[in-house]
Amino acid sequence: MHIGFNTGVEHLWNLMGQSWNALMQLNGFLEQFDTQV
User: Fold this and answer.
1) 31: alpha, beta or left, given left = phi > 0 and alpha = psi -120 to 50?
2) 2 has pLDDT over 60
3) 35 has a pLDDT exceeding 90
4) In angstroms, rounded to a whole number, what is the distance separating the alpha carbons of residues 17 and 21?
5) pLDDT mean across residues, the chain
6) How far apart are CA 26 and CA 37, in angstroms?
7) Which residues, in sequence order, are CB contacts of 3 under 8 Å at separation 6+?
8) Which of 23, 28, 31, 37 has the fewest C-beta atoms under 10 angstroms from its C-beta?
9) Higher model confidence: residue 1 or residue 7?
């Protein structure tokens, strides 16, 4: 199955976006934890 260049870039971009969202959520969680201690 051949994947076009644009499709590959879109897929990579989506993965990066998901990873970024996960990092931001983790960062927010750590900040909440930090303020409680």
Assistant:
1) alpha
2) yes
3) no
4) 6
5) 88
6) 17
7) 11
8) 37
9) 7
| Sign of CA pseudo-dihedral 18, 20, 24, 26 | positive
Show the tokens assigned to 6.
């644009």
Amino acid at the residue 12 = L
* Average pLDDT of the segment spanning 5-34: 93
Q: Which residue has the tokens 């644009």?
A: 6
Q: Which two tokens stand for residue 21?
A: 């969202």
- The 10 Å Cβ neighbour count of residue 29 is 10
Nearest to 3 by CA among 14, 24, 12: 12
Q: How confident is the model at residue 37 (pLDDT cuts 50, 70, 90)?
A: low
Instruction: For residues 30 and 16, give the distance between their C-alpha atoms in angstroms, rounded to a whole number.
Output: 21
